[in-house]
Amino acid sequence: MRIEHIAMYVNDLEAAKDFFVTYLGAKSNAGYHNVKTDFRSYFLTFDDGARLEIMNKPELSDDEKALARTGYIHIAFSVGSKENVDSLTQRLKQDGYTIISGPRTTGDGYYESCVVGIEENQIEITI
Question: In CATH, what class is 6-56?
Fold first, then answer.
């Protein structure tokens, strides 16, 4: 068994797509639009075949996203090396994203950083 894809609602579908394409190398499909419900989505595919569906529809609830909360908390992306973790973290910082930890080696042995990415969602960057 494997996870087929993960999905997340976003307010700005195009900005979310651009974030994952620009910083994490996603490839996007052409998108989907249901004209009856005004639901829109993109499937983003990453190099190893993992997929993320980003979606938007009218009347979304946009609650505050506390850093420490129950539920799904971050998506982790492996970028292959410490140097890649460092450079991507620095690039995101220079582009105005908040780095909330790292780059560092965690107590359980991961080399990672954690960034508050698109629409206050946490992105972990690891080897």
Answer: alpha beta
Sign of the CA dihedral running 76, 78, 79, 82: positive
Instruction: Return the CATH architecture of domain 74-126.
Output: Roll (3.10)
| 50 vs 44: CA distance, rounded Å | 8
pLDDT means per 10 residues in the chain (127 residues)?
Answer: 91 97 97 97 96 94 79 91 98 97 95 95 96
Question: What string of H, E and C letters represents the secondary structure of the chain?
Answer: CCCCCEEEECCCHHHHHHHHHHHHCCEECCCEEECCCCEEEEEEECCCCCEEEEEECCCCCCCCCCCCCCCCCEEEEECCCHHHHHHHHHHHHHCCCEEEEEEEECCCCCEEEEEECHHHCEEEEEC
The pTM of the full predicted model, rounded to 2 decimals, is 0.90
Nearest-angstrom CA–CA distance, 57 and 41: 9
